[in-house]
């Protein structure tokens, strides 16, 4: 099989996986569509199996395609790492591929990336966003260099590096907060919990705490971003559990308030790396930079 494989075939395969379309993959790679089709056909011939189902709108991977994805990412990563090692100098360059929750990127990571790139402008970043399990999958399947998750996944195939303890708070509109302070927590039985959805650990935390305090909410509402959740809370649509850092500005401005529910709710965020993945030089530097940036914070909050 090895004699039939070329690195560009794997790059094409990954592009088709990401774009879910031969046409969009060809545009992304700068190829004509027939080249993309030819690369996939050659891969299928080498593997002896069909890699994609052709649908009326786009394509989706077969079971064999999903298996190949892990090795395709490893192959491309190896090529990039080798190239960077051969060209290694005092000024690191290359691409760092990360995965994390949208709210963590907005509140924590964006500023760190900006600061890092001031010192190392030749380093580029590629970002995937998702929930806890999505990030774990990205790391375990070699899609990214490393991910950031809100708790230790406790898995043998990844290494967890504790980074910081993120405080979580319940927020609500002024009207709802006043009702709770006057009439008690039972008021929340008639309100909806707003979150990123069942896949988000913040949602799980919220349900656990509310159950412990005897609150049975009227339902749950799912929104895709931290900004939309905060706007919905301000409008009185429901209440939410979010990182305190994400609400500090609005709390100071009086847009909403913190609910009188149990305090001291923390989530220990950390970096996860596939134990079999060798990080390229820029990724190693950035991982150290991130951990060093929060070293004092996790000690002081632990």
Automatic annotation (TrEMBL):
Keywords: DNA-binding, Transcription, Transcription regulation
Pfam families: HTH_1 (PF00126), LysR_substrate (PF03466)
The organism of origin for this protein: Paenibacillus anseongense
SUPFAM superfamilies per the UniProt record, alphabetical: Periplasmic binding protein-like II, Winged helix' DNA-binding domain
Highest taxon listed in the record's lineage: Bacteria
Domain HTH lysR-type: 10-62
Name this protein carries in UniProt: LysR family transcriptional regulator
Family named by the database record: Belongs to the LysR transcriptional regulatory family.
Gene3D superfamilies assigned to the protein according to its UniProt record, in alphabetical order: 3.40.190.290, Winged helix-like DNA-binding domain superfamily/Winged helix DNA-binding domain
């Amino acid at each position: 099989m090895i004699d039939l494989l070329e690195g560009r075939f794997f790059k094409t395969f990954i592009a088709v996986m990401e774009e879910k379309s031969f046409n969009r993959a060809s545009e992304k790679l700068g190829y004509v569509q027939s080249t993309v089709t030819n690369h996939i056909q050659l891969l299928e011939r080498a593997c002896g199996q069909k890699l994609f189902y052709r649908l009326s709108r786009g394509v989706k991977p077969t079971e064999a395609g999903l298996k190949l994805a892990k090795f395709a990412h490893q192959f491309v990563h190896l090529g990039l790492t080798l190239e960077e090692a051969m060209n290694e100098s005092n000024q690191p360059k290359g691409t760092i591929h990360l995965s994390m929750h949208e709210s963590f990127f907005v509140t924590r990571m964006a500023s760190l990336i900006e600061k890092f790139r001031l010192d190392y402008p030749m380093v580029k970043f590629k970002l995937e966003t998702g929930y806890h399990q999505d990030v774990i999958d990205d790391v375990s399947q070699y899609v990214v260099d490393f991910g950031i998750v809100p708790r230790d996944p406790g898995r043998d195939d990844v290494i967890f590096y504790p980074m910081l303890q993120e405080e979580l708070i319940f927020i609500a509109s002024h009207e709802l907060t006043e009702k709770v302070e006057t009439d008690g927590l039972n008021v929340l039985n008639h309100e909806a919990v707003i979150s990123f959805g069942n896949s988000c650990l913040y949602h799980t935390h919220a349900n656990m705490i509310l159950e412990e305090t005897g609150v049975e909410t009227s339902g749950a509402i799912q929104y895709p971003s931290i900004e939309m959740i905060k706007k919905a809370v301000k409008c009185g649509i429901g209440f939410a559990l979010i990182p305190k850092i994400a609400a500090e500005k609005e709390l100071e401005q009086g847009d909403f308030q913190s609910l009188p529910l149990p305090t001291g709710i923390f989530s220990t965020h950390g970096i996860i790396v596939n134990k079999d993945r060798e990080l390229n030089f820029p990724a190693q530097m950035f991982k150290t930079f991130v951990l060093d940036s929060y070293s004092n914070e996790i000690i002081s909050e632990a």
